[in-house]
Model the fold of this input.
Amino acid sequence: MEQIFFSDSITAQSIILEDQEAAHCSLVLRKKNGDLIFCIDGKGGIYKALIEQIGKHRVECRILEHQHYDQVEKLHLAVAPTKNRDRLEWLVEKVVEIGIKRLIFVNSERTERSKINMERIQKKMLSAVKQSKRYYLPEVLELGFDDLLALDIPRKYIAHCEDSQDKKSVDFNYQESLIAIGPEGDFTPQEIEMALSKGFNGLDLGEFRLRTETAALVAAAHFNS
Done:
């Protein structure tokens, strides 16, 4: 399958590519009327379509085939955003490629970054979805720590570095799960205790201390292995 496009302007018979997707189609790939493209809707649908009208800001296509896939991603990954934007965006790209259902930016006591450009994050996520040829665009949220603890997800884990608190390596068996990754200074002892009291299990990611983005990557890879 060649280059995949994304559109949220899809009807039963037609697809419209706009803005960056249209520009990429017309100016970068130099597609023309009569060419075939593949497009996802980020909700499990993939479409084979014929370009009928092309311009640098808008591409109109007629749907020829449509398939829908059930979502296979089951990981809800909560991460305290890093202060460095490049490291944060790298984290987003890689965990989406590995496979997540939802990405949650959690504001914990030691979180270093208070503001996130969600529009830019969405673009990075979409690029990673298309690159990895996935069919679902992960949901992305910003939550406070208390709201994170209140999420109703069957299995919940908090990765931490506190030797005084219980933690263990886990065989996830690819079941719907939430994994929380703290900031560079880790979650506070009080936050860890709160999480454990709310049904979270301590998660051991190995004997060495990892950066936030590395820990998130290790957790996502372990979950999907």
Summary: DSSP finds six helices and eleven strands in the chain.
